[in-house]
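Hi all, posting the design record for the shared folder.

TITLE: backbone redesign
STEP: 1 of 1
STRUCTURE INPUT:
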């Protein structure tokens, strides 16, 4: 059943599609492939796009380079090969006595969508070429002969084989006429008015058959708002539940504890660090669990802030756990903690999947017996067998690799721990408000002082030798460096650099006089660890690696980095990588060699060179690539958004969030209000992912 429809008591909305006017059993089978099973599903099968046929233009009225919609009949289709992998597809379109040529370069598949005799709608920019109008790469829609489209903004639906747009439009219209007035409004009328939202019936009408682009916008806005509101409602409810369970230990800071912790750091904290610590300390004092995201660029000093929080828990006799996404990073954290705390009596234990059974059992016993204060580990910390003595705080590093659900997994004991989630990947604001929407946010924007500059160069093939010469010069001055490739070995993709192959060419060529090491994700963690140790000690001067070094390597003497096949990395990832060479007092130098054929990859690299603000780069990356891999809601265990788009709907999201929070704050028992439908929708859609089972 559709997400946006309230599952009403109206039995008619659940009528199987085959009984909807104009559908029948055969088409119902096709619709099943699109998961369209009921009348309501048809109503909420939203168009994926629109074609403007509200002003069809006669071919002899076309204007140079002015986007226009033209309706005509296909008279000729011709595919010409113009070279290896190249072709031109041309189609001659007739309208009365006028002709227009449509062309597509290197898109032979368009041929399957167009046949002589078809009635087609073309939308594109015309140009007058010699003696005839031409449109390059127009949008193309086939329209059945008896469908009248003039004056309409045509909806374009997701389809399946065996159905065309005209048929789909007719079926949806049939469903609307027959069932449209059954749909239940989920927002109270006053609320709709106050928020300038269309009613659901109006919105359904306008999203399927817009009267104008303004009406269409308003209809979309209503559904986007609703989708975001339901999500934010679920997040607010989750917050409310967490808060009302109210089971975490209260860990107040005293002046004495504060002084004792700060004494451990060899530097004064930055203003941002102080601010974050204030926010965290305020949370920890309360007996409701903290749920906070500590958000800061590479090297902004998050670890120190987390250490403060962990030591505060320890000062009150509680354990603190620090969970990292990789073994490498867990070890790095354990080392940092051991270094900072060598003068204290705090007991630290490392717990990772890589430990042998005996060592691990020993560690687990010590943890259960309360002989350990700080536990650093990987996912191993989530294992069922592990029981903590008194867990007061969990710090999760690099949260983007953990789902909301895993966060819940540690919540086992009688008292819930406080949660601090750190991420070195600056998160676009809209994403922070959804994927991490149930968290409060602290941000470290400014970096600790005393950092040397970092220079970023975009390498050109002709300057390669000069770059290696510079690289050697710096190595001879005592610095160390990285060479990063996207792949482990070169059999994976042609023309893309691999770490294994680079080690070979570098040892024989530009870096033959230096000590090179190789590290990548396919090595055992013991192998990796031993090479990393050599790099830290300086025995290895240049580390050739894949992006495994993206997080957690802290070698201040490493100031050089070459990235090969840079087009293969995302902007946020490139920025993370260069964070590895701005850890010390010496300036860092990065050179990115890339196959920057594509516009997008060139833009990305230029942005990297221009800006050193991780937040700005993250926003840019997000705008360019969309919510994709790293930030997709799915990876975080949330069902995907259907109509809202976080790169575009930021403002509406902020509003929906605020509205949902206010609503929940005002009405702890939403069940009994005019918002009960929305409440139930939130539970149904997000209840499982957000562990809201007992709220409904
Ligand atoms: P992040 O985890 O945000 O990448 P870290 O906490 O690892 O950053 O800090 C990066 C480096 O800066 C570490 O070597 C750390 O010791 C140092 N550092 C942190 N805070 C300060 C500060 N206030 N002043 C000087 N150096 C600092
Ligand atoms: Mg860190």
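Okay, here is what came back for every position:
SEQUENCE:
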């Amino acid at each position: 059943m559709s997400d946006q429809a309230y599952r009403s008591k109206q039995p008619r909305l659940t009528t199987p599609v085959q009984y909807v006017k104009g559908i029948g059993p055969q088409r119902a089978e096709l619709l099943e492939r699109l998961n369209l099973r009921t009348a309501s599903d048809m109503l909420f099968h939203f168009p994926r796009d629109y074609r403007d046929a509200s002003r069809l233009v006669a071919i002899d009225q076309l204007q140079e380079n002015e986007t226009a919609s033209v309706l005509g009949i296909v008279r000729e289709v011709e595919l010409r090969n113009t070279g290896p992998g190249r072709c031109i597809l041309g189609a001659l379109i007739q309208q009365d006595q006028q002709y227009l040529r449509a062309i597509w370069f290197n898109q032979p598949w368009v041929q399957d969508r167009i046949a002589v005799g078809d009635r087609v709608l073309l939308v594109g920019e015309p140009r007058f070429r010699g003696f005839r109008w031409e449109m390059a790469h127009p949008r193309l829609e086939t329209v059945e002969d008896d469908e009248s489209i003039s004056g309409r903004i045509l909806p374009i639906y997701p389809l399946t084989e065996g159905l065309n747009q005209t048929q789909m439009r007719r079926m949806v219209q049939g469903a609307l006429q027959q069932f449209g007035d059954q749909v239940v409004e989920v927002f109270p009328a006053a609320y709709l008015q106050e928020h300038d939202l269309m009613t659901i019936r109006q919105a359904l009408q306008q999203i399927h058959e817009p009267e104008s682009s303004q009406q269409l916008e308003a209809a979309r806005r209503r559904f986007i708002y609703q989708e975001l509101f339901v999500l934010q409602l679920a997040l607010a409810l989750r917050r409310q539940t967490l808060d009302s369970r109210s089971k975490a230990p209260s860990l107040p800071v005293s002046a004495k504890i504060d002084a004792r912790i700060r004494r451990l750091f060899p530097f004064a904290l930055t203003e941002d660090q102080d601010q974050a610590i204030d926010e965290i300390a305020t949370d920890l004092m309360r007996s409701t669990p903290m749920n906070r995201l500590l958000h800061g660029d590479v090297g902004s000093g998050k670890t120190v802030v987390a250490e403060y929080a962990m030591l505060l828990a320890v000062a009150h006799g509680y354990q603190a756990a620090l969970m990292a996404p990789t073994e490498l990073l867990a070890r790095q954290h354990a080392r940092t903690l051991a270094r900072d705390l060598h003068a204290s009596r705090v007991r630290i234990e490392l717990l990772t999947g890589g430990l042998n059974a005996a060592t691990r059992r020993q560690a687990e016993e010590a943890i259960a017996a309360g002989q350990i204060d700080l536990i650093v580990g990987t996912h191993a910390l989530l294992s069922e067998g592990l029981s903590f003595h008194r867990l007061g705080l969990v710090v999760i590093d690099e949260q983007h690799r953990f789902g909301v659900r895993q966060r819940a997994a540690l919540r086992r004991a009688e008292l819930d721990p406080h949660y601090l989630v750190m991420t070195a990947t600056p998160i676009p604001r809209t994403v922070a408000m959804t994927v991490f929407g149930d968290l409060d946010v602290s941000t470290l924007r400014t970096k600790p002082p005393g950092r040397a500059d970092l220079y970023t160069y975009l390498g050109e093939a002709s300057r390669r030798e000069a770059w290696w010469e510079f690289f050697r010069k710096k190595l001879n001055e005592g610095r160390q460096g990285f060479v990063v490739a996207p792949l482990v070995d070169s059999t994976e993709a042609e023309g893309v650099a691999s770490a294994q192959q680079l080690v070979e060419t570098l040892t024989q060529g530009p870096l033959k006089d230096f000590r090179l090491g190789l590290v990548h994700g396919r090595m055992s963690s013991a192998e990796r660890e031993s090479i990393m140790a050599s790099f830290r000690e300086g025995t290895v001067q240049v580390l050739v690696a894949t992006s495994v070094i993206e997080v957690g390597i802290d070698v201040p003497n490493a100031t050089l980095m070459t990235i090969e096949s840079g087009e293969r990395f995302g902007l946020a990832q490139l920025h993370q990588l260069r964070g590895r060479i701005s850890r010390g007092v010496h300036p860092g130098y990065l050179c990115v060699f890339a196959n920057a054929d594509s516009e997008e990859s060139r833009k990305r690299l230029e942005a990297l060179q221009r800006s050193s603000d991780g937040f700005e780069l993250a926003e840019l990356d997000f705008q360019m690539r969309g919510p994709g891999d790293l930030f997709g809601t799915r990876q975080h265990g949330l069902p995907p958004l259907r109509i809202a788009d976080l790169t575009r709907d930021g403002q509406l999201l902020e509003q929906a969030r605020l509205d949902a929070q206010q609503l929940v704050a005002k009405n702890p028992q939403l069940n009994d209000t005019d918002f009960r439908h929305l409440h139930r929708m939130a539970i149904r859609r997000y209840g499982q992912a957000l562990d809201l089972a007992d709220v409904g």
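COMMENT: The two ends are 19 Å apart (CA to CA).
Let me know if anyone wants the other runs.
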